[in-house]
Specification:
The structure holds two protein chains of two kinds.
Chain A lengths: L15 H6 L2 H32 L4 H6 L5 H11 L5 H13 L5 E6 L19 E3 H36 L4 H15 L2 H15 L15 H28 L1 H8 L4 H39 L5 H10 L3 H29 L6
Antiparallel strand pairs in A: 1-2
Helix pairs in contact in A: 2-13, 6-7, 6-9, 6-13, 7-9, 8-9, 8-11, 9-11, 11-12, 11-13, 12-13
Chain B lengths: L6 E10 L9 E8 L4 E5 L6 H7 L8 E10 L2 E2 L5 H7 L4 E4 L13 H12 L5 H14 L5 H4 L9 H13 L5 E5 L7 H18 L2 E6 L2 H7 L2 E6 L2 E7 H6 L4 H9 L18 E15 L7 E15 L3 E5 L6 H8 L7 E6 L2 E2 L5 H7 L3 E4 L13 H11 L5 H15 L15 H13 L5 E5 L7 H18 L2 E6 L2 H7 L2 E6 L2 E7 H6 L4 H9 L10 H4 L26 H5 L5 E2 L6 E2 L10
Parallel strand pairs in B: 3-8, 3-9, 6-7, 7-8, 13-18, 13-19, 16-17, 17-18
Antiparallel strand pairs in B: 1-2, 1-4, 4-5, 9-10, 11-12, 11-14, 14-15, 19-20, 20-22, 21-22
The chains are: A mainly alpha, B alpha/beta.
């Protein structure tokens, strides 16, 4: 037999249940293959982003130096920044830096974090005064992590009970209720919800802070907006996969085999429903989350990656935009890799 | 009723609550089952057999509902009890095994732990460890090989037959008084089905269980049941002791059912009328291996040897049969013959020209002469095209006809295969499986091919429809002197339509014989095993007790050295392990078998 687990493997010290559930060779092969594929994807994405940023209109040097700068100064600064070199050469230089952990310096932001574009630098640019992109991202990342984590947590808090309830009562009122809730949530624009929540809970009631970040309470309102945005997709996915699994032959047969309906639900239906849910996460929810964060952080002036990106785009701050794009690509690749790995832990038939 | 009956059903009726005016699904069904007896329930699909079987385990799902009747289990009417009381019997006193073993368990949890879970649920005194040991012992008892490893395997790693064994274990671990077996051999190959029946008979004696055995195959029911109920349209039309009912059927429907069971040895072997000795198709030592990922070796590959050095000639105008069980490589062979794939080694010659030497344009032209018809009547024709367009499409692809001439040809072929010409502008939705296969056949015949490959083309059809299409093919064969290659697992069918037959086992042709010799002499022990396992009503020349096999074919990844059949062959000798035998002629008509034991020495 080729089931992969040697005798007594379930007691394997370090890998424990993983060893039993899935062949080691499979796991190694999986990660080697997926990391290599992921590297190719990130490389291509970063090149496309890098090149596109440099062909769109808007000269960053003009923004750095301000409208008063002479064209000679602009050319000099552009030369100095390497912005007049062919794109592949610029990209090569950038990749060489990234490999050493250097994502370059912001064009605009000073070491202290303030935006300096357009006034002080009309004589030229001294990159040493500018904040390293890596530091900017690392400062913003924890805030975004809190917001994204909170948003997903709240979304699951809404979607799991509603979705499971609907799935267990397919075709009856809970199913319709879930549909109405999802339709309502999906038709509310996140900008509008954000503004309404700020108005109700901050301005009127004064219960929650809305702008900036000085503590966990500042993440609550934006997290609610995120949760409302992504929960409809989750509700539909959960209710569909729960009701499909309830209709699967193994469920009815489990009851006939003498197992209780509650046990079959807990042990088998929920387990099988987790796979499509995880795939949805990798394929769709993470994308929605990233998009949502830009808007939500902007509305709430929340100092995370989203706000950093939006400002950087307005300011043609190439180094920040390209670093964040790469970061997003890496995050998507990694999350999908783990989603697929854990899916195949649950369902051994899956082959990635 | 005698008081000691385990089960007594009286006047059971079930109706569809959404269709109150329609005839009930079950009407006034009564029967009883004595301890240790086997009651066979037989009927065609739609007779209500499965509804009845499920009702016996309180599995009547909306919109169906029990409208009247009693269901006594050990003297207690379970329908009068609260549902919890009935449900508490399930999996304990009354067990159920269904028709589809592969979807019966959660696909994501190992088989063993699901059976253990059931065991500890119904017997809470048992510890998990004891339960596990017990299940592994029972796995061994039902001859699941390497039981303790199999225990940790997932449902998809089991074959249908192995899974059905595991489910028999699952049903019988609690030593129930009544077992409902609902079509349990239906999806299995004949030798595996025969093994399952033998196993069930043994276990029944050990466990002293009464069995209600539902099946659509009269041969199978006769094989196992003491008493048979014949059902038609929800009603029991006749019941009685098996041998009496068979010898002296009263109801017309019973007579018809008995008549429909195909005779194998009683039937005249088929002969095509115009066979040209010159081969139209020659297969020369073809083999095909597929590469699969090896789950145990990083970036490792496993070679699945689907077809291993097959050679034979098909003569112009003859009907050639390829038979074998699941996984023997017969479908891969059909893909090689129809040039959907090319062989790794060897070649397929059509009128002396190798298919692999043809350019893609030549190959396209050649396809006019060689048509393939598949098994699934639903997915092999597009649902969005009219029947006329479906049949006309090949003519358009090959640019053969236009305008009126095209439609004349389409209509002619529709008439030939027995399709009503009114259907020409209809979509295939609403056509029966048999009519759909006629559309597929018409689509192939419209090109006037020289060779037809029928890959399990008639397997999805019921006996009556199958007989009609066989008559159609016999007719086509006579009129057009077309060459047909039937790829099938159905011995009764090849008996009725093929001149010569190749028997495949693990990617090799182990016997190549003419119809008469194969069925009466059979030079290979595997052929005899197949023939001994067919469920028929007539006397078989090969006894099940002598020839029936144990276990299942080895994995095509690890094919045993020497003769690939020797690991299951009851007659294997030392020489069989040394070298793979070649086909040797064993009788005057030129029939050949690949066996070292030799025709004379087989019992």
């Amino acid at each position: 037999m080729r089931s992969g687990a040697p005798q007594g493997a379930s007691e394997h010290l370090l890998l424990g249940p993983f060893y039993r559930l899935i062949g080691m060779a499979f796991a190694i092969e999986f990660f080697v293959r997926r990391i290599l594929q992921g590297a190719v994807i990130v490389f291509l994405v970063s090149f496309v982003i890098f090149a596109l940023l440099r062909v769109v209109s808007g000269d960053p040097v003009r923004i750095i130096l301000g409208p008063m700068a002479s064209s000679a100064a602009i050319e000099e600064t552009a030369e100095q920044l390497g912005l007049r070199d062919p794109i592949p050469i610029q990209y090569g230089r950038f990749v060489a830096g990234v490999v050493q952990g250097d994502f370059g310096h912001s064009f605009i932001r000073g070491v202290q974090g303030g935006s300096t574009g357009g006034s002080q630098d009309s004589e030229g640019l001294d990159t040493d005064n500018r904040a390293p992109v890596f530091d900017l991202i690392m400062t913003a990342l924890p805030y975004t992590a809190i917001l994204a984590g909170g948003g997903v947590f709240l979304a699951l808090l809404i979607a799991l009970p509603i979705g499971i309830f609907a799935g267990r009562n397919s075709g009856r009122w809970p199913d319709r209720f879930a549909l109405y809730v999802s339709s309502l949530f999906i038709s509310l624009p996140n900008i509008w919800i954000g503004v309404v929540l700020i108005f109700l809970f901050s301005t009127k009631a004064g219960w929650l802070p809305a702008i900036g970040y000085e503590g966990l309470a500042y993440a609550i309102l934006p997290a609610i907006v995120i949760a409302i945005e992504i929960s409809p997709v989750l509700i539909r996915a959960i209710s569909v996969s729960v009701s499909d699994n309830l209709r699967a032959p193994y469920f009815a047969l489990g009851l006939v085999r003498g197992l209780s309906s509650n046990y079959m639900f807990r042990a088998h239906v929920l387990r099988n429903s987790a796979v499509p849910l995880m795939n949805l996460f990798g394929a769709q929810v993470i994308g929605m989350l990233l998009g949502g964060l830009f808007v939500v952080e902007y509305i709430f002036s929340y100092p995370g990656i989203g706000l950093l990106t939006i400002n950087a785009i307005f300011q043609r701050d190439f180094p920040i935009v390209q670093a964040i794009s790469i970061l997003a690509a890496v995050a998507l690749v990694l999350i999908n890799m783990f989603v697929d790995f854990f899916s195949s832990l649950i369902d051994r038939r899956l082959k990635f | 009723m005698t008081t000691r009956d385990v089960l007594q059903v009286s006047g059971l009726s079930i109706r569809n609550a959404n269709l109150p005016k329609a005839a009930p699904v079950l009407q006034d069904v009564s029967f009883s089952a004595a301890p240790k007896s086997v009651v066979g329930i037989i009927g065609e699909s739609g007779a209500g057999k499965t509804v009845l079987a499920k009702a016996l385990v309180n599995w009547v799902a909306s919109p169906l509902e029990i409208s009247s009747g009693q269901l006594f289990f050990e003297g207690v009417d379970l329908l009068k009890q609260p549902a919890e009381r009935f449900n508490a019997m399930r999996g304990r006193e009354i067990s159920y095994i269904g028709a589809d073993p592969t979807s019966a368990l959660d696909p994501t949890v190992p088989v063993g732990s699901q059976i253990v879970k059931k065991l500890v649920t119904v017997k809470p005194t048992l510890s998990k460890r004891e339960a596990k040991e017990f299940v592994i012992e029972t796995f061994q008892a039902v001859r699941i090989p390497s039981a303790s490893k199999r225990f940790n395997d997932y449902p998809f790693q089991f074959s249908g037959g192995m899974m059905q064994r595991a489910l028999i274990v699952d049903a019988l671990v609690t030593n129930p008084k009544l077992l409902i077996a609902d079509n349990i051999t239906q999806p299995l190959d004949v030798t595996v089905a025969a093994q399952i029946l033998r196993l069930l008979r043994q276990l029944q004696q050990d466990f002293e269980t009464a069995i209600v055995f539902v099946t659509a195959s009269l041969g199978t029911a006769v094989d196992i049941a003491d008493k048979v109920l014949v059902m038609k349209e929800g009603r029991v039309v006749e019941s009685g002791g098996t041998s009496g009912l068979l010898a002296n059927p009263q109801d017309d429907y019973t007579k018809q059912l008995i008549h429909q069971v195909p005779d194998i040895w009683g039937a005249e072997p088929f002969h095509s009328e115009q066979i040209d000795e010159h081969p139209i198709l020659s297969i020369r030592d073809v083999s095909k291996t597929y590469q699969l990922a090896d789950p145990d070796v990083v970036f490792g590959k496993q070679a699945v040897q689907a077809v291993r050095g097959v050679s034979f000639d098909v003569r112009r105008g003859e009907n050639f049969g390829v038979i074998g069980e699941s996984g023997c490589g017969k479908s891969t062979l059909s893909r090689l013959l129809s040039a959907l794939e090319s062989p790794d080694t060897g070649e397929v010659l059509f009128n002396g020209t190798s298919l692999s030497s043809m350019s893609s344009k030549q190959l396209l032209n050649w396809r006019q002469k060689m048509q393939l018809i598949l098994q699934d009547p639903y997915n092999s024709i597009p649902s969005y095209m009219t029947i006329g367009d479906i049949i006309a499409e090949p003519l358009r692809i090959h640019n053969l006809e236009k305008g009126n001439a095209l439609w004349t040809r389409v209509k002619a072929v529709m008439t030939e295969v027995g399709l009503n010409l009114d259907l020409i502008h209809d979509l295939p939705a609403g056509l029966s499986a048999g009519q759909r296969q006629r559309v597929s056949i018409a689509r192939a015949l419209v090109l006037e091919p020289e060779v037809l490959i029928l890959d399990e083309t008639l397997s999805a059809l019921d006996q009556v429809e199958q007989s009609k299409l066989l008559a159609l093919f016999a007719d086509i064969n006579r009129r057009r002197s077309i060459t047909c290659i039937y790829i099938s697992h159905d011995l009764a069918m090849v008996r009725r339509i093929c001149d010569r037959i190749g028997v495949m086992y693990l990617g090799k042709v182990v016997e190549l014989a003419d119809n008469e010799s194969l069925f009466s002499k059979a030079g290979h022990p595997y052929t005899r095993a197949l023939l001994s396992a067919v469920p028929v009503l007539e006397e078989k020349p090969f006894e099940e007790s002598v020839y029936l096999l144990d276990g299942e074919p080895p994995d095509p990844i690890n094919i045993p050295a020497g003769c690939s059949f020797r690991t299951r062959c009851p007659f294997a000798i030392d020489q069989c392990a040394q070298e793979e035998p070649n086909l040797e002629v064993y009788e005057e008509k030129g029939s050949a078998a690949a066996c070292y034991v030799g025709y004379a020495k087989l019992p």
